[in-house]
Fold these 4 entries.
Entry 1:
Amino acid sequence: MAHKLLIIMVNTDPRNGEELGAPFFQASVAAAMDYEVEVVCTATAGSLMKKGVAEKLHVKPGSPKTVYDFIRDAHEAGVKFYCCSPNLDLFDMTEDDLIPECSGIVGGAHVISSVMEDDDTKVLTY
């Protein structure tokens, strides 16, 4: 049985808030079930790792809970968040611009090696 879940957020568009709840909620649930969980935000979803972005987004219009609240909840449950390295250039960011819940920057090799070489990892993409 796998003990690690890798969630790759590549197709999730932060402009569509309703798309953002499920990946963060499922990451929290998996962490609460004692799985090691990593969320890699890349492409447009990479902007969520930039300070100030997720704080302005809501999964449901009118909800007091922001997308950043979902990220913090998942992080508190043990989820590790990563920003994909090309997003620094794409969104004019430096490492200092990343939210505190972001554990760092990873490249494509991290994702590929986790998927191809780690038999203990299952992958979900959003």
Note: The mean pLDDT is 95.
Entry 2:
Amino acid sequence: MDNYNTAELKTILSDIIKDNITDDAWIWLKAEINKNNSLAVNAAFGIMPRKTGKTAIKLSDSQQALLSSVRPGFTADNWTADKLCRAWLLIEYKEAEKDKYFKTIETLFSVAEMNEQVALYSALPLLPYPELWVKRCAEGIRSNIGTVLEAIMYHNPYPAENLEEAAWNQMILKAFFTEKQIEKIYGLDDRANEELARILIDYAKERYVAGRDVNTMLWYLVKKFVK
């Protein structure tokens, strides 16, 4: 069950979108949403960049403050117009049956190219039925595509809120291993755990033996478990 005001979130996102795409693109997007069927969602998702463009959106301080108040941990800062519109399309899709909604989103994941994967993983904290996407999120962590990993890790509250401890720990270890910006991961303090500390200490020892530096954020995560 969503722990935020979905209607308010949709309104905020629609206002941001209207400020960042042309009137013609907005009319097209609304028409596609009003069709409200899986075939239309699949088609619109695929051609979104051609309709909305791929320029970086401009987000005012007040809009970001609203987003943060409604959906803690989430930001659309540095998103492109097509990415935001894809996310909005998915949360506006009104499928009453959970299984059908799941099938529609899973179909998109199964055929998605890189930029589409980025949009899908970035949209996870906005989608209904959050329990449905846990396995998909855990699978995404195994990706070797940097932008996909960043979509899951950066300013995305979904992993911290939904992943089991083992998957969360795997994500954090991979973030260090792939030299991601750890401070951009939401929920580090809340999800810190003793097993993760053990894993990270072992990783740090391996780095030192190899004569390599260790990201100082590692010690931030393990300090309260070191006796």
Note: The chain has two domains: 1-128, 131-227.
Entry 3:
Amino acid sequence: MKEKTIQNEEVAPEEVAAETSGGVAGESTAHDNVSENDAAATDKMTDNSSETPTAEDIAAEVAAWKDKFVRLQAEFDNYRKRTLREKMELVETGGKDVLKAMLPVRDDVERAIAAMEKSEDIEALREGVRLIAQKFTETLRQRGVTEIEAKGQPFDPDRQEAVAKFAAGEEQKGRVIDVVQTGYMLGDKVLRFAKVVVGE
């Protein structure tokens, strides 16, 4: 086998031109396109250079942005003060609606007391007090306050507080035997823990 090397070969200029004419032609076309794009970009930069903002334009724009900043800062400060004032009012009058809802119940209690002084019908008085209690419970329920059902239920430390333990047998172990003080929920949160007696 004969090995050919580039150094030993002599290539005529015509052959080189013939072999590379396709590639060079393509490259020259691309080069021409790039040259045209560069020329267009240069022209565009020349056009833009003539539109360079003056010192007066820059000063006017800075003043406009400064004015916008000052106005925005003032608006934010007013918003902060208004929000703070609304929070204070909410804290002061947050229970206003609840207290207002309790007033009719108090009126009923006063009427019941007046009736006790004049009437000797014990059963009627009992019924009146029972109705007042129902009205009071319904008013609380309308405000989202519900009673925690505890008696006979398994002891729940998240809602109940064990104040005593009582030996009640294996069946009642860990269950609430008695409720010393009723607990209440406000929505999904404990308003007051139920005080209970737990079996052991």
Note: Confidence is low (pLDDT under 50) at residues 1-31, 44-49.
Entry 4:
Amino acid sequence: MKDAVAFLEEDLKSYRVGKANPLVFNGVTVDYYGTPTPIAQVASVTSPDAKTLAIQPWEKNMIPKIEKAIIDANLGFTPQNNGEVIRCTVPALTEERRKELIKKAKGAGENAKIVVRNARRDGIELLKKAQKNEGMPEDTQKEAETEIQKITDKKVKEVDELVAAKEKDILTV
């Protein structure tokens, strides 16, 4: 359950919400000598100001490949290079794009909740097997099921809070 919440948290960080955030390139891979490699492993990604991202490749021959990867990733950036550094200006979000991001965030939240509920189901099944096969007292099983439900409720609430915070962040102009 913890992993599901942590994964959601990392996923939500990669959403572009009008501020320059180097994490938006986390899912972008570039062809590095025949191997798909994340941009962060072939270049330094920084945010010199609130509206600009700078990518400094460690090898100059990677500049065109990185530019192509950014364009192919369809992040809404138009990369520009000066021969050494690739700069991406972060455009302001349109209302349509904001709604799209909120919808995506809610979908990711629902997926995280499904993972949490599946973990609850697996835990309860293990308890039932333990009671049936190993003679666990029924009271102990019921107490453990109640505890699993409390943990599940707590994790679902965390997911809802993360999604709500991201939604607020997206709507902030």
Note: The two ends are 33 Å apart (CA to CA).
